[in-house]
Amino acid sequence: MSLPAFATLLERLTFTPGRNAKLALLREWFATQPDPDRGIGLAALTGELVFRAAKPGMVRELVAARSDPVLFALSYDYVGDLAETVALIWPARAGINAPPPGLAEVVEAMEATPKAELPALIAGWLDALDANGRLALIKLVTGGLRVGVSARLAKTALADWAGQEVAEVEEVWHGLAPPYLDLFAWLEKQGPRPSAEDRPVFRPLMLAHPLEAPDYAGISGATHRAEWKWDGIRVQLCAAPSGRALFSRGAEEISGGFPEILEAMDFHAVLDGELLVMRANGEGIEVAPFADLQQRLNRKLVSAKMQAAYPIGVRLYDILFDGAEDLRALPFDARRARLEAWFARTRPARMDLSEVIPFTELTELELLRAGARAAAIEGLMLKRADSPYLAGRQKGAWWKWKRAPLGIDAVLMYAQRGHGKRSSFYSDFTFGLWRPDGEGGRELVPVGKAYSGYTDQELLWIDRWIRNNTTARFGPVREVAKSLVLEVIFDAAQRSGRHKSGVALRFPRIARLRTDKPVEEADELATLEALIVGEEA
Amino acid sequence: MPHPQTWMRVTPQGLYCVPGDFFIDPARAVPRAIVTHGHADHARPDHDHVLASDATLAIMRTRMGEGRAGRTQQVAPMGEVIHHNGVDIRLVPAGHVLGSCQVVLDWQGSRIVISGDYKRRPDPTCLPFEPVTCDVFVTEATFGLPVFRHPDPADEIARLLHSLRLFPDRAHLIGAYALGKAQRLIALLRQAGWDRPIFLHGALLALCGLYEGFGVKLGPLEPVPLPQKRGAGGLLAGEVVLAPPGAEATAWVRRLADPVICAASGWMRVRQRAKARGVELPLILSDHADWDELLATTAEVQAPEIWVTHGRDDALVHALALRGIKGRALYLLGRGEEDEEPAAEPVAEASA
Ligand SMILES: [Zn+2]
Ligand SMILES: [Zn+2]
Question: Long-range pairs for B156-161 at CB < 8 Å and ≥24 separation?
Fold first, then answer.
């Protein structure tokens, strides 16, 4: 019965907005499903299940033979999703009492069945399932399963369920393959801890705390080292004799999108660094704004043209393993010396070292931080010189000291209800700025959306204000009277062809409600344009 | 034998029986009306004379107030023939909600059955649909697409009970229409063994009381309590709470313990519909016939001609044509607006 059970899990995960509820659903799955199905389900959710997928066109042909074309067209038009339409319209066949297939059975048969026999096989399964089961099956066999369960979430659920630390699960994870029999045996205390030696496995990252004013006193050049905080994505490079892998901060493998980095990993080490678009200019290397890097993210494959247009590199800042030697217990200074020696020896292509910025007092850095307007710098990192490399967020060891955010006073234009716990609140806000309307007056143009930054009290207030000042409704969206000014802060402004205003904001959030400010005094679009990175005067 | 088209007309107010000089489920106030059931898209206020089942008349009085449910009201006992201007009128059960009827009309040897809204699944809160052979069968097509095949209600209740076990710290808030859906849901929960009190939003209390008055046992029901203090939450963890659809979007809901938002409706079959409403647990539970039941019913009544009042008449008329049956879309206005249609916006902002 495991495919119907999997279908139920999928359905609930699809509709459940809350992280805790998702964890509860996953824990239940691990606790109640037998091997190997629970491991196959896990791999399917995290995108680690690899098998020969069927083409959506085949499913379409199957349903075409079983439904009237006019009725199918009307249905597809209404439902909007091919797999769901097929799952719903698939006619039950009288007299079918075959049991529904198991997950493992489906995955195995997809690999083993000759191509010509696949349609009959899939049709037989569809006959034996109900609508939910059919939808899960179609999404599974066509490789279209997307439920928003990250590997990180799945591992957290595994750790919760087994009473283990997530870091422990992370350590062993990447050496394993579906259906993870070793992993489950270990978590249920029925087997030894799976070994990860010599394989390119992800090691849990050391994370930083935001630096706040009360912490300033404890920081000086005697105890801490400073580096720029680059606005790229954190990556771990793992190269072992048995293979190479590039992992994101969330432990997802992203090797496929960056073949040139994999090619350059011609060594045996585990390194920590920042993935950036780096362009050579006259004097050296210039780091491009995050928007450039974005062009390269979330791609399974990348063309030669993309590689040339957005040359990718890694700025290294730590070394976890040199060969098979684990350096994580060494203090930062010692690891840095090992990193520099390793770099001098290895000279890897497409990589450089993160600069250590000399300082004695924090006040010197404060000036440097305030003056740093380069597009790709987010602020500074401060690392304790004597700290080992520890998994997770270790209070006091690593600090991130972000550049002060940018801000504008914008006008609330539209509001939308939130999800989950916020579904009774108008909590997503579209805000706008003034610009000339071409007829001598001014008009508001939307520049962004924010759904965080406010306190619970502020949300209550603003929710009531929206309900009392609604001028029009479009489904879940309300247009409001243009009379409330919000102070919006954000990390950067970038040019964007996709937005009506021509500007996109990084991490916009609400800093304050400016009920004191008349709407005429909200900012102009031109004020925001002056803040666009790389264009400031 | 006169063709039904000669004595039953489609007017802006709805279906009009010419020799009988009355309307069936008229959309506006008329001198004489027959009302199939109490949903607001069928039962309108302020008719001069209303003929309906006793339960439907009681529902109309509860919802519209004593003075607006028809100046004179006439109870038509189920199954009994009433002669009026040469037309024989008979009400037979439609299986939709308490008191819901089909209207069977005979005139000069020709018979029309106007089914109102109907379903074919067993429902402990109302009498089952009774097929009557006829010359023209007038049907709804709310779920008139082959993607709508309602699952077994018992399975949907099992999903709800499973969720209650998995999330004992959360209230389960189910959006359900005040007439029919709410009571059926309660009755199904009772059949499945849920004997704890079920908590009701104020908008559902009156009709649940009316059902009980008609002998439909609903078990212990309680109003949702007021929050401890203004804005406080945390109430009714592990309990079932029923409210009209849309209540989850109002401030009222904030008193409940981290509610799992559920909705009980046939529309929940399509994921986009559930997503758009922010539903966490969709329960596919409908008081209308699904696609298979629409086709089975039109076959069962053996009518050579089927008229479709509202819903997906395009698909149903096409499917009937494939079976050699003549289908005709009536395009009646204002139908499908209460029952089952998802509320676009909160309906219960003010009521507690
Ligand atoms: Zn109805
Ligand atoms: Zn209706």
Answer: B156/B264, B156/B283, B156/B284, B156/B285, B157/B188, B157/B189, B157/B191, B157/B192, B157/B283, B158/B192, B159/A8, B159/B281, B159/B283, B160/B189, B160/B240, B160/B262, B160/B281, B160/B283, B161/B192, B161/B194
pLDDT of residue A196: 65
Say if residue A297's pLDDT is above 90: no
Q: Which residues of chain B have pLDDT under 70?
A: 336-352
Count of Cβ atoms closer than 10 Å to residue A429 Cβ: 27
Note whether A133 and A7 are same-domain residues: yes
- Global pTM? 0.78
A464 sits in which H/E element = helix A456-468
What does the pLDDT read at residue B273? 86
Chain B: residue nearest A71 by CA? B315
- Interface contacts (A, B; CB < 8 Å): 93
Q: What's the rounded mean pLDDT across residues A364-380?
A: 79
Q: From B121, B125, B124, B127, select the one nearest B94 (Cα to Cα).
A: B127
Chain segment A17-26, per-residue pLDDT in tens: 899 999 999 9
The domain limits of chain B are 4-147+287-342, 153-283
Residues in chain A: 537
Q: Is residue A475 part of a domain?
A: yes
Do residue A26 and residue A93 come from a single domain? yes
Query: Which chain B residues touch A462 with a CB distance below 8 Å?
Result: none
For A24-44, how does the pLDDT look when each residue is reduced to its tens digit (9 = 90+)? 999 999 999 999 999 999 999
Chain-centroid distance of CA A236 in Å reads 15
- The answer to the question of residue A158 being in a domain is no
Same domain as A425, residue A345: no
With respect to CATH, is domain B4-147+287-342 assigned 3.40.50.1380? no
For B153-283, which CATH class?
Answer: alpha beta
Q: Omega into A179 within 30° of 0, i.e. cis?
A: yes
**Calpha distance B17→B84 (Å, rounded):** 11
Domains B4-147+287-342 and B153-283 share a fold: no
Q: Which of A22, B132, A274, A1 is nearest to A9 (CA)?
A: A22
A151 located within any domain: no
Whether residue A266 is found in the same domain as residue A349: yes
Q: Report which secondary-structure segment, H or E, holds B262.
A: strand B260-264
- In A394-469 the beta strands, taken as DSSP E runs, fall at 398-402, 406-417, 426-436, 442-450
Q: Are residues A239 and A316 in the same domain?
A: yes
CA B208/CA A431 separation, integer angstroms: 45
pLDDT in tens, A203-216: 889 999 888 888 89
* Cβ–Cβ < 8 Å for B217, B193: no
* Interchain proximity A89–B275, CB inside 8 Å: no
Determine which of A23, A26, A71 to mutate to test the interface with B (most B C-beta atoms within 10 Å).
A71
3-state DSSP assignment of residue A145: coil
Q: How far is the CA of A471 from the centre of ligand 2 (A)?
A: 31
Q: Which ligand lies nearest to the CA atom of residue B100 in the structure?
A: 1
CB atoms within 10 A of CB A76: 18
Tally the domains of chain A.
3
Q: What are phi and psi of A338, to 5 degrees?
A: -65, -40
Q: What is the CATH number of the domain that holds A429?
A: 2.40.50.140
R_g of chain B, CA atoms, integer Å: 21
Question: Which residue of the set A22, A139, A155, A229 is catalytic?
Answer: A229
Identify residue A478 by its one-letter amino acid code.
R
Tell me, yes or no, if A75 comes closer than 8 A to chain B by beta carbon: yes
Q: In a 3-state reduction of DSSP, which class is residue A469?
A: coil
Name the percent of chain A lying above pLDDT 90.
59
Give the range of the structural domain holding residue A345, as residue numbers without chain letter: 206-210+228-356+387-393
Q: Residue A504 domain-assigned?
A: yes
User: Which residues hold their Cβ within 5 A of ligand 1, which is an ion?
Assistant: B 39, 117, 339
Cis peptide before A36 (omega within 30 of 0): yes
